[in-house]
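Q: How do we represent a protein-ligand complex in a form that can be generated cell by cell?
A: Start from the inputs.
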Amino acid sequence: MARAYNFSPGPAALPEVVLRQAQADMLEWGDAGASIVEISHRGPEFMQVAAQTEADVRTLLAVPDDYAVLFVPGGATTQQALIPLNFAEAGQVVDYVVTGHWGKTALKQLTPALRLNVAASSEADGFRSIPARDDWQLTRDAAYVHITANETIHGVEYRPAWGNPAPDTRDVPLVADFSSSIASEPIDLSRYGVVYAGAQKNLGPVGITVVIVRRDLLERAGQPRAHMFDYTAQLQNDSMLNTPPTWNWYLLGLTVRWMLDEGGTSEFDRRSNEKSRLLYDAIDASGGFYRNDVDPRVRSRMNVPFFLHDESRNDAFLSGAREAGLIGLKGHRVLGGMRASIYNAMPVAGVQALVDFMKEFRDSHG
Ligand code: PMP
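Then emit the C-alpha cells for the protein with 4'-deoxy-4'-aminopyridoxal-5'-phosphate bound:
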C-alpha cells in the first residue's frame, strides 16, 4: 500500500518532507561521519541539534523568557507523575478538572501524600462536555489546578465558545496537558504554570515529551523524589540527566521547523478550523447516519470521534476506508466507533478525502 492518509491518534502522521529528510540523515549526519543516532548526545553535532530545537520550539510556541523548556523521556503519563512530585508538597491539595480519559489517568499518578480535589468532572455525562467554570469547586491554596486541554479519546477541547480556553485560576498555577493539541493554535503561555505534551501527535515522534515550566515554580520543594525525577536537575543538565532519546529529539526538531516554515501556529489554527469544520459538517449533515455526541461548544478540532448509526457496519466502513487510502480510523476501545485524528500533519485534502468517502459509504449503505 502506498502512503495513505493516516488518521491515527498517536503515534500519528508526520509530514512526508520530514520523513524524507530523516531518511537522508539516517545514514550520515552532515560531516559527522556517522548517523545522527550513532553520535554522542554531548558532542558538538547533537548539542547543536538540541539548541536549535529549543530555539525553534520557543519561536513556534512564543515561549516567554521566564519559562524553561525541557525535553524529557517517559511520555505525558510520566509527567503526570512528576508534576505532583515537583510542584506539590506532602499534605497539600491539588485540584483536578476531569473532562475525559486522560484527565482520569492523571489522577492515578498522584502519591497518597497529596490531597486530591476533583474540582469538576464531566464523567456523569460520558465526558461530552466541559463543566462551566462557575461550577468548579477550586481550592484557594491548592498547589495547582490540572486540566486536559484536549481529550484525545473523548474529543473534548477547551474552545473559546466555552468561555476562555485557559480558565482563570487566580493565583493558583494552571497545569495543562496539551499532548494532543499543542501548536494547533497560538496560546498565551503566560496564563499557564506548566504546559506539557507528549510529542507523538503534533510535535513529532513518540519517545520524547516537551515540558514548559514557569521558572519560579521550579523553586518549589515538592515531595521527596529521586534526582532523575527532578525537573530542576533536568534543566541544569540541559535535559540530559541520562542519555536522551536523540533520534526522537532530532525528529521533533525537524517537525517543529516544518511547522515554522508552513506559517506557524496561526496558520495551523486556520487549517484546524477548516479541517474540523469539514468533518463535523459532514457528520451533522448525514441525517443521523453518522453521529458525534460532544457539546458543540467544546468539540475537539484535533480528534473527531464519531459513530455509525448502524454499528454492524463498522467493519465495512473501516475496510472500505482502507481501500480508499484512509487508515487509522478505528475508535479507541474505551468508546468504540470511529475516530479521525487530524493533527497538523494532516492536510485539508486528507480530510476532504475522508468526507468524500463518508458520503459515498452513506449513499451506498443508507
Ligand atoms: N494525555 C493525553 C491528552 C494523551 O492523548 C495521551 C496519549 N494518547 C497521554 C496523556 C498519554 O501519553 P503517553 O502515552 O505519551 O504517556
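The mean pLDDT is 97. DSSP finds nine helices and 14 strands in the chain.
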